[in-house]
Amino acid sequence: MAVGVFDSGLGGLTVLDAVTKRLPEVPFVYFADSAHAPYGVRDADDVFDLTCTATQRLFDAGCDLVILACNTASAAALRRMQESWVPHDKRVLGVFVPLIEALTERHWGDNSPPREVAVQHVALFATPATVRSRAFQRELAFRAIGVDVEAQACGGLVDAIEEGDMILAEALVRSHVDALKRKMPDPEAAILGCTHYPLMEEIFQDALGPEVSVYSQASLVAESLADYLDRHPQMRGPGSEAGFLTTGNPKKVSDHATHFLRRKITFEGA
Ligand code: DGL
After folding, report:
1. Number of structural domains, the chain?
2. Judgement on whether residues 88 and 127 belong to the same structural domain of the protein
3. Which residues of the chain are under the pLDDT cut of 50?
4. Ligand 1 site, residue 193, Cβ cutoff 6 A
5. Omega of the bond leading into 38 within 30 degrees of 0 (cis)
6. DSSP states of 31-76
7. What is the CATH number of the domain that holds 203?
8. What pLDDT, in 10s, does the model give residues 171-215?
9. Do 18 and 34 fall within a single domain?
10. CA of residue 41 to ligand 1 center, whole Å
11. 70 is catalytic
12. Whether residue 89 is found in the same domain as residue 164
């Protein structure tokens, strides 16, 4: 009954942590494509190829359902994967839609026409590839009208987090928030549209100010996954072992992961 969770690196651990707490009986297999991170500076073909390779490895580990806990892959590759690559007995889901449903006050499967929602000025912080894809704005436009989105591509932030350089990561968060505020001085809500960024959530909140609601994906994705597995129990795959796989250096990735999640995490080579 294993379920796969994929990210380019450590960011998806924020999602893994939440889904593990919400569904403690499910063994999750986590895949970090650390050798190829960051994805956010790659083109869409490259992200597609890398994401398919990683997802196949999770299918091979006994997962029939894989969560792309990576906004860059969800934005740049998911639709193409679903249309042309995912075998008929497997499923791949992204992390965008649960977030947008929360922002637009919708429940799963509510396909009613777009309508006005409470927030009107939304700041989006994401990787350069996610910002370039405009996937967030597209998904939002299906559900809401009159929402002004200002996107800030946070170059360098994923690399700093992957390297564990938290001083640089904090400086980058503050300068990206400043840059965003020059374009949109008073956002009502901020979306952390990269799964690495919740590791810096306190700094984002501090730099944005207490009046801005900061949305991050982990708990929203966990609720959606629980709901999905209730409705599709057959998508719990045949695997029975939880585990952590990486294309990077297992010792280095394990050390950084242990530091972030504050519990012992041991990665093996993928
Ligand atoms: N954590 C990923 C995301 O949510 C990918 C970041 C990257 O590799 O650039 O976008």
Report:
1. 2
2. no
3. none
4. no
5. yes
6. EE-GGG---TTS-HHHHHHHHHHHHHHHHHTT-SEEEE--HHHHHH
7. 3.40.50.1860
8. 999 999 999 999 999 999 999 999 999 999 999 999 999 999 999
9. yes
10. 9
11. yes
12. no
